[in-house]
From TrEMBL:
<comment type="similarity">
    <text>Belongs to the L2HGDH family.</text>
</comment>
<dbReference type="InterPro" id="IPR036188">
    <property type="entry name" value="FAD/NAD-bd_sf"/>
</dbReference>
<keyword id="KW-0285">Flavoprotein</keyword>
<keyword id="KW-0560">Oxidoreductase</keyword>
<dbReference type="GO" id="GO:0047545">
    <property type="term" value="F:(S)-2-hydroxyglutarate dehydrogenase activity"/>
</dbReference>
<dbReference type="InterPro" id="IPR006076">
    <property type="entry name" value="FAD-dep_OxRdtase"/>
</dbReference>
<keyword id="KW-0274">FAD</keyword>
<feature type="domain" description="FAD dependent oxidoreductase">
    <location>
        <begin position="24"/>
        <end position="396"/>
    </location>
</feature>
<protein>
    <recommendedName>
        <fullName>L-2-hydroxyglutarate dehydrogenase, mitochondrial</fullName>
        <ecNumber>1.1.99.2</ecNumber>
    </recommendedName>
</protein>
<dbReference type="Pfam" id="PF01266">
    <property type="entry name" value="DAO"/>
</dbReference>
Amino acid sequence: MFRSLIKKRGFHTCNSLSSDFSHVVIGGGIVGTAIAGELQQQDGNEVLLIDKNEQLGMETTSRNSEVIHAGIYYPPGSLKSKLCILGKNKIYDAWLNGKFQVPLKKCGKWIVAQDEKEAEYLEKLKKISDEVDVPVNFITTKQANEKYPLIRAESAILESPTTGIISAHDYTLFHQSIFENNDGTLGLNTELTNLEYNKGTSNYTLTLQSESGEMQVTSDNVINSAGLYAPEVSNLLLPKERHYQGYFAKGNYFSYSPETSIGKVTDVLIYPCPNPNAASLGTHLTFDLGGQLRFGPDLEWLDIKKANEIDYTPNPKNLSKAYEAIKTYFPDITLNSLHPSYSGVRPKILSREDNISKFADFVIKEEDGFPGFVNLLGIESPGLTASWAIAEYVRDIYHK
C-alpha cells in the first residue's frame, strides 16, 4: 500500500532527500490525529499517520467520559494545566466561530463536598482556578438543593461553568479531515514492529506490518503518540537504561436505568470531591449528548506489563463498590439501576504507589540523542481536551 504511494508522490519536499516522509506519527487516537493534521499543514511536510486499528480513535479516545475539562485539577505551570486550558479554549472558540460542527454541549459541572475536609479541598481548587484564570464559583447548599434535590451536597459545591461534553468520535473525524484534506497519508490496520535510528543519514527506519505484508519506510522525524503502547514504542529505540514502564489503570463505566426522568436528576455533570492521593477524579456522574446518564470511571489497577494484555470487559465485581461511591452524592440511586457498560484504560507512567505521592504530568519531549524523535507518554485525562493544544505544542518543537 505505502510503496505505491511513495512511488506516486515522490516526497521531494522532505528535508532529507533519502527519506520517504518528513514525519511519521505512530498512533491515531485523538492526540496523534491532531498532531498529524497540524504537521501536514506546514509547508514542505509529508506526514504518514499509522494506526493498528481499522479506524482512528478506537482505543483510549473512544473509551472515556468525553468531557471537556476546565483545567482546575492540575498544578499551575504543568503541561496538563496549560495544555488543557489551551485545548479547551480552542474547542470552544472553533465551536462559537462556526469553524467546525462537532457536537458538544457546554453543560458545566458541580464538584460536591460532603464534609469540612472536602470543603477545604474545594477551596484549594478555587485558588488554583483563580491562579490559572479559569472561572469557578461556589454555590450554596440551599441553591443546590432547590435546583437538583436528588443530588446530595452536605458541605460545599464548586461550580465549573466551562466544563462540557463532546463527541470524541466526531472530534477525531474533524482532525482526520484536516489531515487528509491537506494530502496526509493514512495507514490503517498498520502496526509498527521495529524502529531504528540511522546515524549516517540522520533519519529513521520504521518496519511496518499491514494486511498486505511487511515493509519499511524512512522518515526524518518520528512522533510516538501510541497511547497505551507508547512505552513499548519508545523502548524499541531508546537504550535499556532509558526504557519506560507503562502502568494500566482501568476505569469501568456503569449505565443507569432511571426511575425518574433524566432532567429531574441533573443537567450538569456531578463530580465527587476527589481524594488528594487518588489517581483519578472519582466515580462521577456524566451524560452523553443524547442525555443518557452514566457513572464512572472507577479505578482498577491492572496487574499486566503490556497493553495487548488488556481485557476491556467491564468488571461486574466493581459494581457494588461503585454503587457505594455514587450513593454519597446521589442517595436515591438503587443497585438494580446500575449496569456494567464499558471500560477504558488510563495510560500511566507512574506505578500505583508512586501515584499516591507524585504528580504525573504529561511527558512530551524530543529525546536526547535521537533528533526528531518526540515521545508522548502518560497522555491520560485531560488528553481529549488538550489534544489540539498538544498538537500545536508538538508542531512548535519542529517549527519554532
